[in-house]
Amino acid sequence: MSLSATTARPSPAAPPSPDVDRRRRRGRLLNRLDVKYSPYLYIAPFFLIFGLFGLYPMLRTAWMSLHDWDMIGEHTFIGFDNYTRLVSDEYFWNALVNTFGIFALSTIPQLLLALFLANLLNRTLLRAKTFFRMAIFMPNVVSVAAVAIVFGMLFQREFGLFNWLLSFVGVDPVDWDGHRWSSWTAISSMVNWRWTGYNTLILLAGMQAIPKDLYEAAEIDGASPWRQFWQITLPMLKPTFIFVVILSTIGGMQLFTEPLLFGNGNIIGGNQREFQTLAMYMYEMGIVNLNTAGYGAAVAWAIFMIIIVVSLFNFLLVRRSAK
Amino acid sequence: MSVTTRRTRLAAAALAAITAVSGLAACGNDDDKPAAGEKPAKLVVDTFGEMGYDELVKQYEKDTGIKVELRKTAQLGEYRPKLVRYLATGKGAADVTALEEGILNEFKPNARNWADLTPLVADHSKEFLPWKWELGKAPDGRLIGLPTDVGSLAVCYRKDLFQAAGLPAERDQVSALWPDWKGFHDAGLKYKQGSGGKAFIDSITAVSNGVLFQGNGDLFYDKEDNIIADTSPAVKNAWDTATSMADISAKASTWSPEWSGGFKQGTFAATFCPSWMLGIVSDNSGPANKGKWDVASVPGGGGNWGGSWLAVPAQSKYPSEAAKLAEYLTNAKSQVEAFKLKGPLPTNLEALKNDAFLSYTNEYFSNAPTGKIFGESVAKIQPIHLGPKHQAVKENALEPALRAFENGQADKAKAWEQFTKDAKTQGAF
């Protein structure tokens, strides 16, 4: 086909009619609107659902917390009385101490162990990597209730495995739910068992995103694996680590099922509330006691505030130490 | 713009629209009460555990042509939150609702949630155990519930272990060992000696339950529902009796793994059995221990632990038809049928005299005449006034304090202090 033949065809660039022009302008407008607004439309479903099932309950809880609210009876507005009562409530502070105690006993060893395991799994030397990565995640798939029931049996006073093992080293049977330290240990061990693998995988993913040439360069410079870990892996892992820490904080502050089932479903968590967590106290006041639902709502908001404060604190701490 | 993105956008918009619409629809109200006297097509009955209504309900359907849906919930722990949700939101409740003793008391201060049955049913006040009938009334006088069953008390004991420890094993002789609680403690000490130091009962909270429910006066509340837990002589009596038994206790609190495992292991030789506990004892002990258990009478006469009522929620669309169904399910004939099917003890005086009931024996418990034992015990039950939050005070104040003492976490004075302090907060309503 010759060039002249092409030019000989009727030109499409004939002077446009006003109608076509208008259509084109409208097309441009739609296009602009599309670019500008359709992203909001795409994410709208999430926010609608969040508004319905997240934001509304939160605001409603806030409203309830300003009332003397009987679940099946009267509601009286009392302002911030529930919150002032909270400050002087001995059992609220007890639950706070328990929550932080169990949180510290579970999160700190758990994250250290996860870091260690992730580093191991990240090694090129390891064989059957996929198998190990799968295996380490398995505990997280098991239902909490099943974990709590099995661990509850292991920590039994009379016929429990741990007391039986302790008897070989001459330790008297421990009444696991009879003391603070022992019940905290038992509950933390459930949390650790279940969540170490999960955190390991997240940290591992973070480690694999670190460019390999950094390690190669360090190797050439003669840096030991230990030094590589401290000076390359850890600093580069910072964002992932912050994420994991905040996630663990939220989980730790809301700890509920494990201590509840450990205490045979008793909401007060031990004879002297040795392991009643904040979430359990909220449930006791807000759901179990019908007439203190407003106070329970105040406890719920207190937990929310505490999570925000602790997460911020963790965020600052991790950011500073990684600098 | 490509076709795919346009489609996605459409889908997103549609999804958003759907969520918005369904969200709004959920807020819609369908408040269409039927005209009075209209016959319902269906009535719903909510029960927990096993109340033995399966056959009775079918019969009622045949007799009246009204369909009855029986909604069963196995555990009381799951049942209560459901009821609370129905009442708090004003929808979803069944037309006839079974209320356990603790729940009934807790709901009484808000009696407006329940229909007053007095104008809806005939006067049955003389047909039931009088105290049980009275407990079905709210403080404002309205009749909330019709009595179903009671949890009359007895003692379950291991014949073989008693024999091995040199105690009598035959049920009448065993009952004769403990005319009172002192006798029970002595028997326990004898057992401990004869068995080489083994525990006699499961826990001291089981004892406190037994003593409390024998009803020697007001417990945690007085008749005006003021909290008197710290001064009530009946509570102090239960406390002293229970704490005195710490030396013969296996320290296995009821429902704990130590407790359920203890039945098989024989860590204790006796426990307190309301009639509904027999099934739990046999399940926990397993088929291997069949025939080793027996039932004797409780020290110090009869007592009551548990039991229920049938009520009609105010939100029911057919209160009068629902009340008739409740009336039918609690009459003498129905109560005997229910007992034969699942074992809840009758409260209807005529049913308690019924031959089929009195001649019933329990195979697992060495063919003990449980109908006769529990029937006699029912007659001795004293009426007790239980306040609105009796259950909460018992479970979250009294029992933890007793267990703390039993486990050596607190001495007697400290534990009592813990109880009286917690009783005030748990008992507030």
Features:
heterodimer; A: 323 residues; MetI-like fold; two-stranded antiparallel sheet; 74% helix; disordered N terminus; B: alpha+beta; D-Maltodextrin-Binding Protein, domain 2; 8-stranded mixed beta sheet; 47% helix
How does the SSE layout of this entry go?
The complex is a heterodimer of chains A (323) and B (429).
Chain A: H1 3-8, H2 18-64, E1 67-69, E2 75-77, H3 81-87, H4 90-122, H5 129-141, H6 144-154, H7 161-168, H8 180-208, H9 212-220, H10 225-236, H11 238-253, H12 257-262, H13 278-288, H14 293-322
Antiparallel strand pairs in A: 1-2
Helix pairs in contact in A: 2-14, 4-8, 4-11, 4-13, 5-8, 6-8, 8-11, 11-14, 13-14
Chain B: H1 3-27, E1 42-48, H2 54-64, E2 67-73, H3 76-89, E3 96-100, H4 101-107, H5 130-135, E4 145-158, H6 159-164, H7 171-177, H8 181-194, H9 204-212, H10 233-244, H11 257-265, E5 270-274, H12 277-285, E6 293-296, E7 304-311, H13 319-329, H14 332-342, E8 345-346, H15 349-352, H16 355-358, H17 370-379, H18 390-406, H19 412-427
Parallel strand pairs in B: 1-2, 1-3
Antiparallel strand pairs in B: 3-7, 4-5, 4-6, 4-7, 4-8
Helix pairs in contact in B: 9-10, 18-19
Text of the CATH class of chain A: Mainly Alpha
- State the distance separating the first and last CA atoms of chain A: 68 Å
Compute the number of helices of chain B.
Answer: 19
Listing every helix as H and every strand as E from the N terminus to the C terminus, the arrangement of chain A reads: HHEEHHHHHHHHHHHH
Q: Looking across the biggest beta sheet of chain A, what order are the strands in? A: 1-2
Which percent bin holds the helix content of chain A? Answer: over 70%
Strand segment tally of chain B: 8
CATH superfamily of chain A: MetI-like
The radius of gyration over CA of chain A amounts to 29 Å
Which regions of chain A contain 5 or more consecutive residues with pLDDT less than 50? 1-8
Portion in beta strands of chain B: 5-15%
Global structural class of chain A? mainly alpha
Quickly count the domains of chain A: 1
Count of DSSP H/I helices of chain A: 14
Query: CATH homologous superfamily name of the largest domain in chain B?
Result: Periplasmic binding protein-like II
CATH C-level of the largest domain in chain B: Alpha Beta
